[in-house]
Amino acid sequence: MSKIKVNSELLQLMDDYNLFMDSAKKIDTPLNVSKVKGNHRSSLYEEVDLISEENFGETSLVCEVRDKNKYNYSFQILTDSIKNRVISRFDEGNGTHKNNCDDIPLAEQMVTTPHFHRYDEKGRFIAYKTYELKQLGTTPIKIADGFKSFCSHLNISCNNNIEPTIEVVEAGALPLEFDNDPLNGINF
Question: Is 82 inside any structural domain?
Answer without folding.
Answer: yes
